[in-house]
């Protein structure tokens, strides 16, 4: 006869649904939650429900926001002549951490992947094109992942934009800082050569 507590098992199963969480980690998290005070557990649950209810997509760039227009799009100090196109809201956080990019963003909401049944119509491409009616935009930076899907998406979007007379650029990819050349694959080395800059 196996030892089982239904509520604990269900809590553990919910944690296990999170990305990167295995069975043992899920169990640890479940026991941690059980060790919380009733007030802390209630606040934790309410925070999840509130975030799910209040966070929506920005009506301009499709980023996550708790207001109709996100803080980046609302910031008058941002350079509106440049839009950095990314696949996911997490990519915006990565760019913002650099404190080097001052333009705006557009989130596609994924990448074109026929194998997974994701076509261009399932991404926020129409919304991007609608933003380009504004002649203020001079450059689109395609910052999708350097994968087959990322490259295909970047090429598809750039083909739609180029006829509008807007410059389309692609992020340079190459050797990471501290990387060793002999361990780099051919594509990474090719990208590093292609994206080289003058010293």
UniProtKB/TrEMBL annotation:
Family as reported in the entry's similarity comment: Belongs to the RecR family.
CDD domains per UniProt: TOPRIM_recR
Q: Which domain of life is it from?
A: Bacteria
Q: What is this protein called?
A: Recombination protein RecR
The answer to whether UniProt assigns keyword Magnesium to this entry is no
The segment(s) forming the Toprim domain are 81-176
Q: Does the keyword Glycoprotein apply?
A: no
Q: What does this protein do?
A: May play a role in DNA repair. It seems to be involved in an RecBC-independent recombinational process of DNA repair. It may act with RecF and RecO.
Q: What Pfam families does this protein map onto?
A: RecR_C, RecR_HhH, RecR_ZnF, Toprim_4
Entry's Gene Ontology BP terms: DNA recombination; DNA repair
GO MF terms listed in the record are: DNA binding; zinc ion binding
Q: Which UniProt keywords apply?
A: DNA damage, DNA recombination, DNA repair, Metal-binding, Zinc, Zinc-finger
Source organism (scientific name): Bittarella massiliensis
**Residue ranges of the C4-type zinc fingers?**
58-73
């Amino acid at each position: 006869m196996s030892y089982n507590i239904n509520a604990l098992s269900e809590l553990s199963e919910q944690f296990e649904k999170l990305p990167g969480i295995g069975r043992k980690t899920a169990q640890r998290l479940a026991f941690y939650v059980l060790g919380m005070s009733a007030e802390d557990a209630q606040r934790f649950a309410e925070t999840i429900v509130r975030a799910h209810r209040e966070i929506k997509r920005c009506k301009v760039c499709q980023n996550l926001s708790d207001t109709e227009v996100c803080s980046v799009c609302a910031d008058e100090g941002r350079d509106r002549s440049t839009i950095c196109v990314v696949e996911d809201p997490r990519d915006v956080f990565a760019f913002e951490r650099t404190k080097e990019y001052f333009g705006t963003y557009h989130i596609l909401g994924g990448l074109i992947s026929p194998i997974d049944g994701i076509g261009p119509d399932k991404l926020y491409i129409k919304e991007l094109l609608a933003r380009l009616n504004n002649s203020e935009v001079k450059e689109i930076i395609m910052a999708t992942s350097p994968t087959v899907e990322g490259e295909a998406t970047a090429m598809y979007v750039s083909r739609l934009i180029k006829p509008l007379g807007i410059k389309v650029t692609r992020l340079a990819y190459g050797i990471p800082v501290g990387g060793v050349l002999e361990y780099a694959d051919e594509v990474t080395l090719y990208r590093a050569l292609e994206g080289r800059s003058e010293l």
